[in-house]
Records
---
Amino acid sequence: MAEFHVSQLLKSVAEQMRIVLQQKLISHPGELGTGREEVIRDFLRKHLPKRFGVSTGFVFDAHGKVSRQIDIVIYDASLCPSFEAVGGKMFFPCESVVAVGEVKSQLTSTKIVAEAYDNIRSVKELDRSAGDKNLSIIDGHPIDQRYNHLDQIFTFLIVTDQCVSSKSMRETLFYYNRNYPRYQWVNLCYYFDQYLITYCCENGVCPNPMDAYAIGCLENQSPELLLLKFYKLLARAIEVINVSKFAYWEYLNGSESWEAFSYPFDNMMPYDVWVPPHMSYRPGEPEYQETDPYAPTRDSTNAT
């Protein structure tokens, strides 16, 4: 029996993935570069677990804050609803979103790179805790993306055609990060076939910004290895990122606008009509008596 090596299988799969992706990313005369976004989305749909939806749109939180339009939104489709507005624009509650990404054909200046980071950070700023009320589906702990990297939406930037050098990308990321708290940092930058940038932690390459002490770059590697590394980091992240149930009460402003006395209700029944005890009894009250207060009593019967 021939030996089976997972490493060889992954290498072969990565090579095929790259070939297919490269062929679809090649520009054709008269074709706009915006089609690359859908190419990447389709690639991710085919290679990520099926419980995750891959789309484009806006992400929002319970406070009414909405992100900028995002090229790639990866969300747990089994957990929360998505909403389609007029014109086909999609909106996703941040509780269910596990990763978002920006796809750019060209990033040829540090200014444009910073603008791409701004789009990503507009998602990172959202409150996934719904005012400290959301709990993780996995272990029940309170969601807090400010301190726990597993409560943060994973973010990435993909460039397909032309990009600044790896040195410029690292420097731009460093100076950009100086202006914002760690939980708002982008996790991964991938320039197709060229380099992969993320953070360095004590145990090596790690896209966790909370433990980062340096910015690292993987380049001068085979294109297949770069794609495989990007795929593995993203696939691993979306499997461990904490999600929570959709906070219907918070999204509907229940704690502020829903007051029982502020809405007129008709009485369930007329006050002067007898009802069976099971209708009037509520748990916690003294046990009711199975009697009809309007039924004839023994004394009244004898009197007649």
Note: The CA atoms of residues 154 and 209 lie 10 Å apart.
---
Amino acid sequence: MRRKAGLILLAFAVFFTALSPLLRWYAFPRLAKVPADQYQTMVLEAKNATLLDYGTMTSRTVPEVVIVQTLRGNVEAAEKIEKDAGRDVVVWDGLSYVQGPDGAMVSRIPERYIFDAHSQEPVHATGETVDGDPVHRDGIEFKWPFLTQKRDYEYFDAQARVARPIHYRDTRTFRGVKVYYFEQTIPWTKVPFPKVMPVKGITPESVAKTGTTRWYTTVRKFWVEPLTGAPVYGEEIHKEELRGGALLGGRDRVTVFAGHVKMREDYIASTVALVKHNRLLILLLASSLPWGFLILGAALLSLSLYLEARGRRPDDPEPTAVVEVEPVTA
């Protein structure tokens, strides 16, 4: 009976031990994916920012500039690209919309970001654009990979249309969540004018004829939860200028926008809550269940070996009967 129980335990030990690496290295990459139909909105704001008044072409301080960023999963486009790519793909149609204190548009820049649903690596396909211009992304954007590492990554900057290193700085705690802090600096770079300008009748082509150019620099900061790769908070120290040309009336440069952009408090709270929920799911798939099954398999193996050893132990010998010897008489 012990031997039969030991064999059953041995079978379960082999099953759970084999299931551990399968769950971590086979199931996890296939189950931990960004949903193709995901939709999210993020609102950021810059208090006491500097903004260009296009009527007078002078910069002024305004109480607040609001940036609304939306990412909408395009399932139909993703399915078409997956046929050629041979892997799960996500297509995000994004829009960065900036508005001044009066609610008027300052700029709007759409983009399409195509990437691998698990690794977040860019997938190059027709339609990969920023503000209608084709781009070839290198590096991540918006989201880090699952199981983010303590290292530098290439991060794509939509304004400059280039990828530059974003550096891991240290590990911190943000609103009760362990995060990796990353920082990227884009030095002053000449960038294209937005296709949609804030003033009617002015186009990028008409501005270009004046000889005026647009320049941009930023310090980008992200607090990233490492299991999900999702930023729980972000900031930018953002500056834009117009330089030279007849449009500035002989001036060397004029500030278009300058401000310390931060996530709005209500969006911080909702983002942290969502990341905490998703973090538990990733933790189960990547760590808790694989390690739990491995430990369980080892325990069952030990128990089966113990029962096998007990089953092989010889039975205790029966007590020897005491034989009484009759005395010998002469």
Note: The chain has a mean pLDDT of 88.
